[in-house]
Amino acid sequence: MSNDAIVMLKDDHKEILAAFKKFEAAGDGAHKTKGALVDRIIELLTVHTYIENEIMYPRVRELVPELEDDVLESYEEHHVADVLVMELSAMAPEDERFTAKATVLIENVRHHIEEEEDEWFPKVREALGRTVLQEIGEAMQESRKTAPRRPSQPGALKKTIDAVIS
Ligand SMILES: [Fe+2]
Ligand SMILES: [Fe+2]
Fold it and tell me: In whole angstroms, what separates CA 150 from the centre of its chain?
């Protein structure tokens, strides 16, 4: 397994996008399947945004100041996803708004992942190079061990807010 920060985050993205596809492929009445998939999506997103908020974004902000606007926009996109995730986690799959809300979450996160992968991660790679990206990757691996897995866990929402206002 690579310890390059960007490779690691892209692997997470693949897993997240695969879960999105499965959700979209589930039938209208497949409440149980959809509920389980949304649980999985919530866990993947909670861990992923946590390690980006805690490690990747602050390091990029510090080391590549010209990408500050991209990082700030990304924090806001995480915040929108956090709100939807919080709401979804409190909702039953039978709720008439469940699929609609999950669909909006999926659309938002797909757009966010595209921006990371196409617009600013390549610039981060160019600016930081392999050694620094490996250091960041190792720090993310450490952070992943204690990352919250549910939005209700301490650290999930509060960390996002702290990261935005500090
Ligand atoms: Fe992100
Ligand atoms: Fe990401």
Answer: 13
